[in-house]
């Protein structure tokens, strides 16, 4: 048996069979088996034991419920255990390294949470008179100033509520600018590199544009010849949507030229800024010729995400697009009073409109500004540098056993292809085997331009010891994959659920619990 430098085995001698993992209770170790809440409780029981109110007549008239709700009754300990058991089946950034490339799963500092819970931020209401929420408006304004400074851009729309929503904001601003130029109907083509995040082409189409794909070249960047050719032969270019650093984890080396070419062709440059964590404090997108870029506060600026939590996607805009920014936005009047511009008049007369009911994700603004202020300009720069260093550490530790997709250093994420695997072993087998090792899988099969892609983003918040522990696990799995170890195909062996039909779960989700038919069960 080989041992790693922590004295733990690097490859199991023995892969457990299903049989010896079966227990009578269904629980494994101290991880409890848990059914659906409907299977735990029944509608016939109740968790509370209160006497019926005396001498009360119903006041609901004819609308009182005639039958029970069918909701199961649970006692308090049953309810607490149910959710506790479910929570222990979750993987979380607070539990371990979360290598999901493109998602920037970094630590969420507790200080952010503390400040977001201050009553002056947490207990205010968006419909309060603005005179009573001056501090909150000032916070939005201060965060906006930081985002403009860090990106080198003159304007920012704070209201978009996620990355994809920010893309929508930027592309709507581009659409509105084209309409103002009288070219809304003639410029419809948006160039999108093949490696783009799926949200980019989806956003372009949603805003009424036609997507035209540009291929990647052999070093994972935009194919400049194809770009030039497309720009020369089409007079309907609205713009380009480009991610930088791109989804291969690489800096687009020709980005200045791309910006110039797009501008010469009369189009705008949308930059997907989801990977901003790699360059904060080192590169300002405004200096690269960007016209619009969303920032994922929930990636770069450490606000929590995953599991459907709230995102926030402020979108910075160039001089050319700033007039078309959505309402509302915060302005500071000469007397020092902060005000939300809500209507499309005055400064906002050219706005493309409103994207959200109020002003955006206030709780995320508080968290992001806390993160920014607690790091300072030098700390933010160091965080980016450490994120890039950590990804390169992983790439360099694993490059002798796995196949890096491209030569040279990477930015904040390391990308491997499946070229090193023996016939029959696929990326999914490696990803599922990581679960048995206690890790959430890396991003797999994305970007599409790399065969069997495995995209690993450790972020800056992992220590070298934790990176080594992860690399030891992945290295051992990769060696088994290279040797064609068929047992990988059965992984995960140790998770509560084995391999699921994820396509079916996505396409035909079962969202409603139906009581099993007692008769048919009996007949089977
Ligand atoms: C995460 C991500 C997005 C979308 O952001 P959401 O907040 O999930 O909508 C867009 N592009 C890239 C490259 C991303 O990584």
Description:
The strands form 3 sheets. Strands 1-7-6-5-4-2-3 form a 7-stranded mixed β-sheet, sandwiched between helices. Strands 10-11-13-12 form a 4-stranded antiparallel β-sheet. It has a two-stranded antiparallel ribbon with strand order 8-9. The chain has helices at about 35-40, 75-90, 110-115, 120, 135-150, 165-180, 200-205, 225-235, 255-265, 295-300, 360-400, 425-435, 465-480, 500-505, 520-524; strands at about 155, 190-195, 210-215, 235-245, 270, 290-295, 315, 330, 340, 405, 415, 445, 455. The chain is of the alpha/beta class and about 525 residues long. α11 crosses α13. The chain folds into 2 domains: about 110-370, Aspartate Aminotransferase, domain 2 (3-Layer(aba) Sandwich), CATH 3.40.640; about 375-505, Aspartate Aminotransferase, domain 1. The protein has 15 helices and 13 strands. Bound molecules: pyridoxal-5'-phosphate. Pyridoxal-5'-phosphate binds near residues 164, 199 and 311.
Topology, element by element:
Layout: H1 37-40, H2 76-88, H3 110-116, H4 119-122, H5 134-151, E1 155-157, H6 163-180, E2 189-193, H7 199-206, E3 210-214, H8 224-233, E4 237-243, H9 255-264, E5 268-272, E6 292-294, H10 297-300, E7 315-317, E8 329-332, E9 338-341, H11 362-398, E10 403-404, E11 414-417, H12 427-436, E12 443-444, E13 454-456, H13 464-482, H14 502-507, H15 518-523
The chain binds pyridoxal-5'-phosphate.
The site of pyridoxal-5'-phosphate has 13 residues, from helix 6.
């Amino acid at each position: 048996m080989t041992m790693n430098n922590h004295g733990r085995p690097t490859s199991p001698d023995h892969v457990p069979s299903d049989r010896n993992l079966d227990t009578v209770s269904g629980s494994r170790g101290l991880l409890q088996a848990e059914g659906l809440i409907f299977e735990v409780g029944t509608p016939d029981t109740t968790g509370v034991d209160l006497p019926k109110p005396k001498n009360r007549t119903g006041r609901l008239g004819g609308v009182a419920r005639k039958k029970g709700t069918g909701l199961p009754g649970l006692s308090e300990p049953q309810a607490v255990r149910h959710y506790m058991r479910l929570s222990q089946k979750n993987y979380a950034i607070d539990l371990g390294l979360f290598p999901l490339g493109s998602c920037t799963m970094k630590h969420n500092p507790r200080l952010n949470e503390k400040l977001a819970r201050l009553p002056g931020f947490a207990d205010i209401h968006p419909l309060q008179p603005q005179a009573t929420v001056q501090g909150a408006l000032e916070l939005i304004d201060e965060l906006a100033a930081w985002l403009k400074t860090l990106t080198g851009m003159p304007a920012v729309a704070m209201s978009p509520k996620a990355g994809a929503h920010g893309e929508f904001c930027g592309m709507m601003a581009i659409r509105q600018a084209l309409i103002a130029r009288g070219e809304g109907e003639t410029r419809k083509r948006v160039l999108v590199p093949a490696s783009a995040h799926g949200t980019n082409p989806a956003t372009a189409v949603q805003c009424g544009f036609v997507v035209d794909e540009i291929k990647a070249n052999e070093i994972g960047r935009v194919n400049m010849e194809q770009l030039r050719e497309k720009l020369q032969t089409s007079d309907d270019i609205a713009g380009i949507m480009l991610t930088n650093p791109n989804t291969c984890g690489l800096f687009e080396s020709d980005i200045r030229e791309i910006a110039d070419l797009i501008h010469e062709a009369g189009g705008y440059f949308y930059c997907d800024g989801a990977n901003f964590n790699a360059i904060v404090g080192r590169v300002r997108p405004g200096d690269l010729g960007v016209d619009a870029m969303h920032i994922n506060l929930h990636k770069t600026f450490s606000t929590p995400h995953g599991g459907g939590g709230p995102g926030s996607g402020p979108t910075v805009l160039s001089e050319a697009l700033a007039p078309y920014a959505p309402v509302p936005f915060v302005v500071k009047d000469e007397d020092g009073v902060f005000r939300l511009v809500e209507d499309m008049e005055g400064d906002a007369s050219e706005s493309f409109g409103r994207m959200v009911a109020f002003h955006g994700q206030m709780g995320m603004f508080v968290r992001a500004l806390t993160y920014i202020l607690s790091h300072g300009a030098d700390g933010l720069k160091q965080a980016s540098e450490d994120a890039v260093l950590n990804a390169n550490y992983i790439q360099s530790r694993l490059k002798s056993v796995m196949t890096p997709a491209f030569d040279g250093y990477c930015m904040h994420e390391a990308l491997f292809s499946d070229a090193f695997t023996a016939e029959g072993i696929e990326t999914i087998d490696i990803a599922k085997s990581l679960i048995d090792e206690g890790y959430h899988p890396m991003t797999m099969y994305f970007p599409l331009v790399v065969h069997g892609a495995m995209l690993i983003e450790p972020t800056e918040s992992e220590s070298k010891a934790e990176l080594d522990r992860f690399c030891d696990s992945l290295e051992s799995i990769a060696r088994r994959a290279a040797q064609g170890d068929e047992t990988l195909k059965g992984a995960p062996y140790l998770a509560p659920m084995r391999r699921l039909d994820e396509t079916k779960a996505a396409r035909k989700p079962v969202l409603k619990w139906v009581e099993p038919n007692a008769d048919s069960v009996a007949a089977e």
